[in-house]
Amino acid sequence: MSNAVSSVLVTGAGKPGTSATITALRRSGYRVLAVDSAPEASGLGKADRAYVVPAGSQAGFVEELTRVCLHERVRAIVPLVDEELVDEELVAVWELSRLGIQILSPRLSLVALCLDRLQLTEVLRLCRVRTPRTRLASKGAGDLSFPMVLTDRYKTGQVSPARVAQDMQALDGLLFEHRAHLGRLLIQEHVPGPEYSVSVVVWRDGNVQAVVPKEIVYRKGAAHYAVTRRQEALTQACAETARVLDADGPISVRARLDAAGDPHVFDIAPPSDEDVFVDGECGGGRSPRTARPGAHRRRPHSEEQLARRHHPAPAGQWRLPAPACTRPP
């Protein structure tokens, strides 16, 4: 058996949760390289090798990433910063696939759709996916029903965090507060039920390999804490959403359950640092994008700790290059 270990590169090493992704990959036997534009990025110290590169919006990012990949013989890239996936300059990152490097993300057109919430909700409604009704804030609430949420249309260059209004007076106050940016904000009907972040593992053949619903139970800043739960209706809805969107890479679906238990999809994104869920005992979990089918199972320790119950995936091989041998973390 060869002693060579497959090398995987992770971007956005300074984002919350990236350290857990790096740790999970290393425990699975991969040699991990991490890159970030900030030398103090926390994830850099967790990787086998680390590089400080230009920011994704700066000239030279693609060239430096290419140099690192060729020098380190990288076999796959796990991009964890949405902006890196859609910037015109960074479309060239996908050219690395011609060198045999796999980009673990959906195609660029799907990523671009997911980053525009208005277009995304319109497409979902056309595909008959249950989603909250949505309007541009500049057009007012119209016939939408309360409660409503004021949120950004675009996921890049965000104007305001999502804020819920229970009545017209509260909504008018929010609209007045953000009156200079109404063209970049959306008003959306708010489903007052449990919120889920659902990891859907899909690859180029379009087959859904796993669906992992995680109920968000606590938020702190950019991070959220979640418990993995079995929700059959939600699992089916997210698998169908991936199918109608013709997803060809892993996606993270955000949804809420209404009083009847019906799921309402209100956001979709390529997996990012937010897709890493935090375990109360060990401090970090595996991102489903890097999990091989059936490989991620743990016995829950108590009701208070964050449980992990992975839905069994259909037989098949996840496309992340398998490690040639295992190594300790």
UniProtKB/TrEMBL annotation:
It holds the Pfam family ATPgrasp_Ter. InterPro entries: PylC_N. SUPFAM superfamilies: Glutathione synthetase ATP-binding domain-like (SSF56059). This is ATP-grasp domain-containing protein. Residues 8-85 form the PylC N-terminal domain. Residues 280-329 are annotated as: Disordered.
